[in-house]
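Could you join me in thinking about how sequence relates to backbone shape in a protein? To get us started, please write out a protein record for me. Would you write everything just below, so we can both look at the same thing?
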Amino acid sequence: MLSDAVVRTEQWPRITGALLRILAVGAAYYLSGRIGLVQRVVVEGSIVTPLWLPTGIALACLLWMGIGIWPGITLGTYLAIADLSTFRLVDVGILAGNTLAPVCAYAMLRRAGFRVEIDRLRDGLALVFLGGLLPMLVSASLGTWTLVATGNLPASRFWSVWWAWWAGDAMGVLVVTPLLLVLRRARLPQHAYRMAEMVALLVAVAAVTLLATRSSLSLLFLIFPLLIWAAVRFQLSGTAPCVLLVSVLAITAATDGAGPFAQHTLFEVMVNLQALNGSAALAALLLAALVTEQNNIRLRIEQACMDLAEVVEHLAPGRRES
């Protein structure tokens, strides 16, 4: 009896810690959902967001804490739905889709040997396809079919809402998850000139993005040289915040109908916006992963050469024994 009581007492800290993590994930999901809904748009009468932040947060939390925190994703989704309207039994489809999508992404990434450092090209590709594009088909499909089944969306308008839903969830992974993964291990540049370069990069990205997304001229391509600069000089720690900055400023311009997004239908605006955000996130993430991998290979080769030189020095003929 005493040993059973001791075991139960030792389990309490683990149970309490697990519950706190679940509640923290639920709160983060809900609060980020409130932020994402600030720039929501209505497509065919349904509310969607060009960048659904909670999906990226959910996947990052799964990669950090494991599969055990999935109830927090469900809790956060429930609170987000209840905040928009009264939760009904039919909304369980949306609840299931928003939970299953990041869980499937986590399972596929684990299966593929994904490393949270994203220091290999294969990690970048895995995050794009296995973490973002493929598993978000689950949430978009279940969510949109729920709207159709409840009569809130005509079947003839299924694909426009489905596409916007899928793109918003996928962009949440491509933009938010890398940023959270890099923030956990990020360190400020040790040298003043590196810090100055980072600040100059962020200022340049903000200025050029504002110009490109607010001008009536077609200048969106100007963003990509800056993302190349970020990837080459700072790898993921530079590209992740830059991509988030580009995405937020582009979404703001699109919802305002400014610059290249003016005088277009809502569907055309969403296509242009997601093409820009997706291209920026994909290019920056993959280039940063590739540069990191090449730098690591170079360092390993240099270390191997140093070790070989040391061995040759010890084996050199005529070396006197000490």
